[in-house]
Specification:
Elements (H helix, E strand, L loop, with lengths): L26 H15 L3 E6 L2 E6 L3 E7 L2 E6 L3 E5 L2 H8 L4 E5 L2 E4 L3 E6 L5 E5 L3 E5 L1 H11 L2
């Protein structure tokens, strides 16, 4: 794949025009188009209602999200946020292709995954940025490996 940049002063400053050229409309082209569309349609921040305030958090700064009953814990470099909500709804809000569910109550950002270690009963432990550790259940291990290209 070749990537080129061509400056065009006719394009407005707040716009980007992407042209994909290929010999045919292959699976790779379709996947690339899908990823570009996802980038175009997603916000780079997510608003979080915490303590009677709405805080804007950069999605790429989110390391992991855990849920216990109806309380979400969102881990970032800066801070740990606790708020009421459902994991499923939060995943829908932040899904940029970098997040993967690793257990019934945990989602991690693959960009913050440092390594995986074998754990008990065929489970694994995900070691993330800021020394965070989360168990990967067997049920979700296949999808994690798929996302990692394994």
């Amino acid at each position: 794949m070749k990537i080129n940049f061509n400056q065009d002063d006719k394009i407005p400053k707040n716009e980007i025009d992407v042209i994909v050229k290929a010999s045919n409309f292959s699976d790779e082209v379709q996947e690339l188009m899908k990823k570009l569309d996802e980038l175009n349609s997603k916000f780079s921040v997510v608003p979080l209602s915490v303590d009677d305030r709405v805080i804007m958090v950069q999605i790429d700064q989110i390391i992991a999200i855990e849920v216990f009953e109806n309380e979400l814990t969102i881990y970032t470099h800066e801070k740990i946020y606790r708020l009421r909500g459902q994991l499923k709804k939060m995943i829908e809000r932040i899904d940029d292709g970098n997040f993967v569910q690793i257990s019934k109550n945990t989602v991690i950002n693959l960009n913050h995954l440092n390594s995986l270690e074998a754990a008990f009963s065929g489970n694994m432990t995900a070691l993330l940025t800021d020394d965070l550790k989360f168990n990967v259940s067997r049920k979700y291990l296949t999808e994690l490996k798929k996302q990692l290209g394994m």
